Amino acid sequence: MPLSITMLHTEWGRAHAGATWDIAAFLQRGAVPRPAGVLDIQEVPEGRATPERLHRIVDELERVGPVPFDPAATARLAEATGLDRAAAVLLMAGLPHIKDDGHNFLPPGTRKALGVKVAEAKAARDTLRRLPEAARLELYDAALPDDPAGLWDPTVMAERLARAWKEAAARP
Hints:
Layout: E1 3-9, H1 11-16, E2 23-29, E3 38-44, H2 51-64, H3 71-81, H4 85-92, H5 108-114, H6 118-128, H7 133-143, H8 154-170
Antiparallel strand pairs: 1-2, 1-3
Helix pairs in contact: 3-4, 3-8, 4-6, 7-8
């Protein structure tokens, strides 16, 4: 059964984020009536992102905290895929703000943490957006390790993403 990713607009987000909109995503299983405030529902295949696996990932996140950024793993991903460094950075970081069309789409703190300049980030985003959204989801699905703890090993994730990237590029 496919999962639905549902985007909700919240009044809290509008009140606390200035001119931005806070969009919350959650997974919804089955045919449930559309909740109030829903902006969009997009069906995606379940793939490896089963509810059990997602629960294990959330448990691991609560246990160890955010995944650290590793420039060396990102360099390995760039070398293995032929992507430039900025595109590999965005791919390793989970494609932050990939749908934002603005020139300066990454918040300054995110750019600084990832070590990318505005123009580099924009060029990388444009390169990665050439891959359709469904294909980007499949890419991460293929890279998802059996053990969620593998998400916190940047070297393992770089290798898995590189393999998934090459497999996606080999498809007609």
